[in-house]
Structure formats: C-alpha cells, structure tokens
Amino acid sequence: MDNLNTPEVVLSVRNMIKDFPIGQSSSKNSLMRAVNDVSFDLCKGEALAIVGESGSGKSTGARVLSRIYEKDGGDIIFKGQPLAEYVDEHGSLEYARQVQMIFQDPFGSLNPVHSIYHHIARPLIIHKRGDKKVIEKLVYELLELVGLFPAVETASKFPHELSGGQRQRVAIARALAVDPEVILADEPISMLDVSVRLGILNLMADLKDKHGISFMYITHDIATARYFAEKTAVMYVGHMVEWGNSDKVTQTPQHPYTQLLLSAVPEAGKSGRRELGAKKGEIPMWKPDTKGCPFAARCPRAIEACADTFPSITEIAADHFIRCHNI
Amino acid sequence: MNVSSLNTAKSKAPLLEINNLCVDYVSPHGIARAVNNVSLTIAPGETLGIAGESGCGKSTLAFAITRLHKAPALISNGEIIYNGRDILKMTDKELRAFRWNDVSIVFQSAMNSLNPVITIGEQLTDVIAAHKQISPKEAVAKAKELLEVVGLHGDRLKSFPHQLSGGMRQRVVIAIALALEPKLIIMDEPTTALDVVVEREILNELYDLKEQFGFSILFISHDLSLMGEIADRIGVMYAGNLIEIGDAKTVFTNPSHPYTKGLIASFPSIHGPKERLYGIPGDPVNLLKLPTGCNFQARCVDCMEICTKDDPILAELSVGYQAACHKL
Ligand SMILES: Nc1ncnc2c1ncn2[C@@H]1O[C@H](COP(=O)(O)OP(=O)(O)OP(=O)(O)O)[C@@H](O)[C@H]1O
Ligand SMILES: Nc1ncnc2c1ncn2[C@@H]1O[C@H](COP(=O)(O)OP(=O)(O)OP(=O)(O)O)[C@@H](O)[C@H]1O
Ligand code: SF4
Ligand SMILES: [Mg+2]
Ligand SMILES: [Mg+2]
C-alpha cells in the first residue's frame, strides 16, 4: 500500500509467513502455511480491516504481531525498528504495552477466578500507572468508557457473572488500560448486539481519530469494516487477495473471492437458498510448496495459469490491489 | 393475507410452548430476573428467531428450555411444554431421553466445548456410535459426511481442536448437533464466528436438512439481517422481557416497538451512504436495578409519563403479532 503522501507508518509488515505442523508430525513436508506473503502498512490513527474466510489466517497474523507466535518468514517493523530488536526485558515489555490485542473469544480471555477489577488493574500495576488510589480511579473510568455501568458494582463481579457482550467490554477496557499505540482487535464486537456494537465501534473510531491509535480490525462483518476502517484487506487461505481503500474494496470488488464474499452477505427479506457464484470446490490446505492461486479450485474465472502459477500483485486503481491472473 | 400460510404453521399444534417462564439469577447483589414472564410457541418445522441486547436473557432462555441452566440460575415460574409434556416436570430419566432424542443445542461458546485431547473424528464418531446402531466403519463414514456438510475437509477428522480456527471448531459443533437428527435445534449465535460464505453454505445446508428432516429451530442471534432471512418469526427481548414478536418480514421492515426500531436502524449499510450512526442511546439496563414501568424508558425516544409508571404488557396488534409498548 505505498502512497506518495503516506501518513506515519507505525507497523510495517513485509512478506510475513507463518507455518504450523499438521497433526502431530513435525517433519518438514507436513507443514501447513497459515499465513503466506502478507504485507501491509498500518498508519498512525488509521484502521486496517481484515476480512475473509474462516480459517484464512486472520487470527494467526494478529497473533504473530502480538508475539504469541513466532513468524517463520518476512519482516515486522514497529516504529522503524525490526520486531527482533524489541528483546530485552524493557524492549519486549514496551512492545507488549504499545501493541495490545483484543481476542476473538471473550470467554477464554478472562480468568474465571479473578474479579473484573483485578483484570483491569493488573496491566495498570504492571506498567506502573500510579498508586492504589490512581489505579482505582482509572479502573472505574475505563469501565464507564466501555459502557459498563455502574462501574463499582461491575468491578466487583467475576467473568461468569457477565454476559458474553459484557465480557468483551471488559477485554476492551483492559487493552485500553495501558495507552497502547496499536490495538489488534480480533472480532471485538462479533458477540455484542447491534446497538452496543455501534457504541464500541464509535468508541474505537474516537480512539483512532482523536488519540491516534492504530487498529487492525479483524471481522466477518464487511459493513462494519467499511464503516470503521479506512483500509480493508481480504484474506483467503493465508493470502491477502484484495486490499486497499475500504470503499473501493467493498463497492467495486475485483477479485473473484471478494465478489463471492460480498454476494453472500445476509440481507433480511431475501430468504431461502441463495446459490453462490463459486464452485463448491475444496478449500485447499496451503503447504510451503503449493502452487497456483489459492482460489483456483473454486474460482469461476480461473484460467490456465491459475492452476500452477502464484498470481502477482496488480494495482488496479489508486490504493486498490489484487492478486489475480484474470483481471 | 395469505390463507395457506396461516394454515400451515399456525394451525398445527406447537412443538414447543413456553408459558410465563421466569428465570432468576440469585446473587449477593440481589435477584436478577433474566427471563421474565416469557410466553412463546414454536411450530413443527418452524424457525423462530430471538434477537435482543447483549445480556437480555437469550442464552438463559436457551439453557432453561433444556433444563441445562446451572445455579445460581433458577426457574421460578412457568411451564415449557414439549409435544404435550412439561419439561419442567420430567424425571431425570425422561429428561435425558428428551435431550438425547429430541433436541440438539449449539451453545454460544460451543467452539470451546470440544474436548482438547481427543481428535475431531473421535468426538464425532463417539456421538454417532452412542446414538445409532452402526459399525465403527459406518460411523467414520458418517462423520466424514457430516464434516463435509459443514464445509470441512474429511481429513480434518484427524485434527485436534486447537489445530482448527474458531470458525472451524464451530462448524464441528454444528456437525455434532446435526449427527443426532433432532426435532428441535437450539442454536445460540451459531454462525457468529464464521465468515459469510461459510455462513451461507451452512444456511443452505440447514434449509435442505430442514426440508428433509422437518426439524424446528430456535435461532438466537444478534444479526438481525441474518434473522430476517432465516426466521419465519422473530421475537425481540429486552431486559428479560419479550417485547415484540411476529412474522419476520414485519418485524424487520415495519417494527412497532421503539427498541426494535432502534436496533434495525443501527446497522451500518454495506452499500448505502457512509454516515456516523448512533445506535440506541444510553446504556444497557442493570437487571438488578430495573425502573418502575417500562424497562426501556431511559433509552426511549418516545417515552411518555405512563411509561415511567406502568409495565407495558405484550398485546396483540394483529393476528399473531404482539408488542409491549404503551404508545401502541
Ligand atoms: N496452533 C495451531 N496449530 C496448528 N494449526 C493452526 C494453529 N492455529 C491455527 N492453525 C491453522 O491455521 C489456519 C488459520 O487459522 P486462524 O485461526 O488464523 O484463522 P482465522 O482466519 O482467524 O479464522 P476464523 O475466522 O475462523 O477465526 C487454520 O487452517 C488453522 O487450522
Ligand atoms: N451466573 C450468573 N450469575 C449472575 N447473573 C448472571 C449469570 N449468568 C448470566 N447472568 C446475567 O443474566 C443476564 C442474561 O444473561 P444471558 O447470558 O442470558 O444474556 P444473552 O442475552 O445471552 O447475552 P449475550 O447476547 O451477550 O450472549 C445478564 O444480564 C447476565 O449479567
Ligand atoms: S488468479 Fe485465477 S483462480 Fe485466482 S482468483 Fe484470479 S482468476 Fe480466479
Ligand atoms: Mg480468527
Ligand atoms: Mg448469550
């Protein structure tokens, strides 16, 4: 996503690769490539939405960026410095503070034996944000910021006493607690109901626009991707197949997979079976030596090259890119 | 009005009939009524959607229907009649048989309910083998078939849960639910973790299976557009109350309750103009501090004096269509 007058790039990812062993074997030829050749720039105060197939490597990508997983190839540069240089105790703590992750699953990300107060106070204490009084005040402010009223009462509860949506708000408050520069939000609102979703999206938009926080926003809801994020990337089987300006990607999709994705979006009033414009073909498991286009088996537009050559990147319009042989 | 549609769904005896159901959570902070006096029916072969605020009691309702609710939840009133029998009065043995033969549930956090140390294949074949008199080989073939129904490759039988993405695990859980060939499937946010293409494939599959087996579905979701597509009728809950229920099309295109109106107006549009939306003003209510009168009053743009005094009751606005609002 190179641009002439690019705003400040906070996080830069180049040709990122992540492999996993298949089953329990660890031999080289039984690796699957969950993320392949992924590159993007995350700019200050901007959001990049990642949409796409379930299992396409969205969460894995975010987990590599948050250092839960080690990358198997490519470069990650945070504020001009390769990730590898954030190593010593101070460096890795600093990276962990500045790049926060909100997980897909609010059930698993909270510890059942700790109160909500503990969850929010802990990062504040670790990052030495003040004495007991200051921290107490911050905890209640954060809970109110994410719409958990009354804050004092919510703070005394335990995760199992909250509904799914309420738990996700706690996770967001916890990420905000340490003043991060980047928030990697893995489906942060998918379990909230529509009215609350907008509140959280608008809250994230304010954090982005007014406080300059950058977001990677992983979602299945393409309408919210367009609503919230300046840029959108579409993933399929570990690859970015289309990306760029959110309006261009969602209004004039050019890659056959993006077109399929948009045609499947639910619309009330259109009930009954809706045939999809793609072959029911197999979703491949990508391996380090797999050839061709990841979408070839299902693609209605496939040509000969698709079966054996990995498509290269084409800029089809300003700030609009696809990886496809048949443009 | 289409007479034949009236004759099909509505004249049949309901498969499930819930009357005045109340479910309370008892805690040191007080008693929170998560399901308050809810009555509804589901006809054979019908899909009933339940929508509403996070925390409004949808999952609690789903748990209560199968009596899988756990303390501190307590069913304090009502009856749940399945095929003429009150589930709340069943003996443990009857209840087990009911859960085993009649109903399948896909819970909200189901993708985390898979056993982490057993392969997907074993978990599926265990369920199938325990349920049907078939050989282990046939069970494996059936398991493969079910995985394919939910769009997973048969090779995934060998995978362990942690080797699958969230969405893939969710599909495994849906496959397990289908394995039991139930008459009623309760699905609590079944496709929330999935991308829309897989969601569409699973919906298409559900439409086909429903036609083939004729089961009913209680479909809980936040996604009103999805609900408008799959459900025959939609019920909307707010703070434990059912506040509007009727045919899906009317609920979606011409809702009566101000809360439903607000919900439907809070969808960012995928194609339309891009504008900042505000959803529904205010904050979710605290079940422990419900106001006198209508629970929605503090957030309601149409609030009147009577709303702060009396509870609105669910009243019939037209045949089979009900809403609870003083303005109506
Ligand atoms: N720890 C792991 N070990 C082995 N394989 C893994 C592991 N984590 C993920 N995978 C595999 O990597 C691929 C990408 O998974 P990931 O969770 O990143 O998908 P996703 O795009 O986030 O999907 P969803 O939308 O369903 O959340 C999947 O094929 C998955 O099976
Ligand atoms: N174990 C519990 N103890 C006390 N209160 C509880 C407990 N479980 C749930 N509640 C409360 O009961 C209410 C209903 O919860 P429920 O999980 O049914 O909501 P929901 O409608 O399914 O929400 P969501 O859409 O977020 O899943 C919530 O306000 C919640 O705080
Ligand atoms: S490269 Fe070929 S298979 Fe891939 S999307 Fe384009 S036309 Fe389809
Ligand atoms: Mg994911
Ligand atoms: Mg729920």
TrEMBL record, chain A:
<dbReference type="InterPro" id="IPR017871">
    <property type="entry name" value="ABC_transporter-like_CS"/>
</dbReference>
<protein>
    <submittedName>
        <fullName>ABC transporter ATP-binding protein</fullName>
    </submittedName>
</protein>
<keyword id="KW-0813">Transport</keyword>
<dbReference type="InterPro" id="IPR003593">
    <property type="entry name" value="AAA+_ATPase"/>
</dbReference>
<dbReference type="InterPro" id="IPR027417">
    <property type="entry name" value="P-loop_NTPase"/>
</dbReference>
<dbReference type="Pfam" id="PF00005">
    <property type="entry name" value="ABC_tran"/>
</dbReference>
<keyword id="KW-0067">ATP-binding</keyword>
<dbReference type="Pfam" id="PF08352">
    <property type="entry name" value="oligo_HPY"/>
</dbReference>
<feature type="domain" description="ABC transporter">
    <location>
        <begin position="11"/>
        <end position="262"/>
    </location>
</feature>
<dbReference type="InterPro" id="IPR013563">
    <property type="entry name" value="Oligopep_ABC_C"/>
</dbReference>
<dbReference type="GO" id="GO:0005524">
    <property type="term" value="F:ATP binding"/>
</dbReference>
<dbReference type="InterPro" id="IPR003439">
    <property type="entry name" value="ABC_transporter-like_ATP-bd"/>
</dbReference>
<keyword id="KW-0547">Nucleotide-binding</keyword>
<dbReference type="InterPro" id="IPR050319">
    <property type="entry name" value="ABC_transp_ATP-bind"/>
</dbReference>
UniProtKB/TrEMBL annotation, chain B:
<dbReference type="InterPro" id="IPR017871">
    <property type="entry name" value="ABC_transporter-like_CS"/>
</dbReference>
<keyword id="KW-0067">ATP-binding</keyword>
<feature type="domain" description="ABC transporter">
    <location>
        <begin position="16"/>
        <end position="264"/>
    </location>
</feature>
<dbReference type="InterPro" id="IPR003593">
    <property type="entry name" value="AAA+_ATPase"/>
</dbReference>
<dbReference type="InterPro" id="IPR027417">
    <property type="entry name" value="P-loop_NTPase"/>
</dbReference>
<dbReference type="Pfam" id="PF00005">
    <property type="entry name" value="ABC_tran"/>
</dbReference>
<dbReference type="InterPro" id="IPR003439">
    <property type="entry name" value="ABC_transporter-like_ATP-bd"/>
</dbReference>
<keyword id="KW-0547">Nucleotide-binding</keyword>
<dbReference type="InterPro" id="IPR013563">
    <property type="entry name" value="Oligopep_ABC_C"/>
</dbReference>
<dbReference type="Pfam" id="PF08352">
    <property type="entry name" value="oligo_HPY"/>
</dbReference>
<protein>
    <submittedName>
        <fullName>Peptide ABC transporter ATP-binding protein</fullName>
    </submittedName>
</protein>
<keyword id="KW-0813">Transport</keyword>
<dbReference type="GO" id="GO:0005524">
    <property type="term" value="F:ATP binding"/>
</dbReference>
